[in-house]
Design brief:
CATH class of the largest domain: Alpha Beta
Number of domains: 2
Structural class: alpha/beta
Number of helices: 13
Radius of gyration: 20 Å
CATH architecture of the largest domain: 3-Layer(aba) Sandwich
Order of helices and strands: HEEEHEEEEHEHEEEEHHHHHEHHHEH
CATH topology of the largest domain: Hexokinase, domain 1
Length: 341
């Protein structure tokens, strides 16, 4: 089931709108110029930028307009990886912040809206097709709240409140809640990460950097062997990607163990948010990691861990879990929100 969000407004409006949609993350910024009319959304131009190569979002947007000789759109909506308060956001994994008022001044676009990136993903769910989703746990869903979780450079979370007719997305910063050890190994991992971070959040474990941290824990504390070829590979490409790829190919025991822990902890955070939100409408996994490791998530470990909780296993059994395979979901959601908010 894909949530329906404000679809009445989308389908009934024939007014053409142009929106520059943005998905602003700690690693990359995706931009897309959309034309929206009569329930149809068309991406006229898209481009990806490296976040750290720019000093502000306005600089990225203006570069986009200049490169493609684009007439200024009616509005800009950016989904940003951080908490949005009064039209401003501090991006946790970037050295620069973003302000709707400042972006408007610097780009010349009158209407600029900022929403959390997971909130944008939640709105984007309404525009996906069945083939954009991969089911991990069928469950037995019925109308109720839903949630979306996205491990990537950080760990994003958002909720979708069911009002009896439509879903209403809302942002959270749940990824920064304290990581809770369950096993003796988890306790050792927590001790290791506490020495590095002080406060250990779920984002320190269930994210791209988290994969690398768990790997280093297994290597340095548990003394698991690090193959020389893997060490060299991690110096050439993104270490977390190298670890997950080696696990998918079953090429190194330390990588298999690291990803087993990642899958287990991702399942646990899904259980936590499902319990807190009573998410009978489903859990959706987004972000850059889940689609790439969907093979690992389809193994028994994920669902078994998800359904193992205190005294609510019956509730977990009925909650469906799906992986979002469409990497444009946040852009779609931002465009939707920018056009109809």
């Amino acid at each position: 089931m894909i949530p329906i969000i404000f679809s009445d407004r989308l389908l009934q409006s024939n007014t053409e709108r142009t929106v520059l949609a943005a998905d602003v993350g700690g690693t990359k910024v995706n931009l897309a110029l959309y034309t929206i009319s009569a329930g149809k959304m068309e991406a006229r131009q898209t481009k990806q930028y490296h976040s750290a190569a720019f000093h502000s979002f306005s600089e990225i947007a203006n570069s986009f307009f200049l490169e493609y000789s684009i007439e200024k759109p009616g509005s800009i909506c950016a989904g940003v990886a951080g908490a949005v308060v009064n039209g401003k956001a501090h991006l946790v994994n970037l050295p620069w912040g973003i302000s709707a008022e400042q972006v408007s001044d610097e780009t010349g676009v009158g209407k600029v809206t900022l929403i959390n990136d997971l909130e944008a993903n939640a709105y984007g769910l309404a525009l996906l097709k069945d083939e954009d989703l991969t089911t991990l746990h069928k469950g037995d869903p019925f109308a109720g709240n839903a949630a979306i979780i996205a491990p990537g450079t950080g760990l994003g979370e958002a909720g979708l409140f069911w009002d009896g007719g439509f879903y209403r997305p809302f942002a959270t910063e749940g990824g920064h809640c304290d990581f809770a050890p369950r096993t003796d190994l988890d306790t050792e991992l927590h001790t290791y990460l506490k020495q590095i971070h002080g406060i250990v959040s779920w984002e320190h474990v269930v994210s791209g950097p988290g994969i690398l941290s768990v790997y280093k824990f297994l290597r340095d504390v548990k003394k698991m062997e690090e193959p020389e070829w893997l060490k060299n590979e991690m110096q050439i490409e993104d270490p977390s990607a190298a670890i997950s790829e080696a696990a998918l190919q079953n090429k190194a025991e330390i990588c298999v163990k690291a990803m087993d822990l990642f899958v287990e902890h991702l399942a646990r955070i899904c259980t936590i948010i499902a319990l807190k939100m009573k998410a009978t409408g489903g859990i959706f996994l987004g972000g850059g990691i889940a689609p790439k490791i969907v093979k690992l998530l389809q193994e028994e470990l994920f669902v078994e861990t998800f359904t193992t909780c205190d005294r609510q296993k019956d509730l977990m059994d009925i909650i469906p879990i799906q992986v979002i395979m469409n990497d444009k979901t946040a852009l779609l959601g931002a465009a939707f929100y920018g056009a109809y908010s």
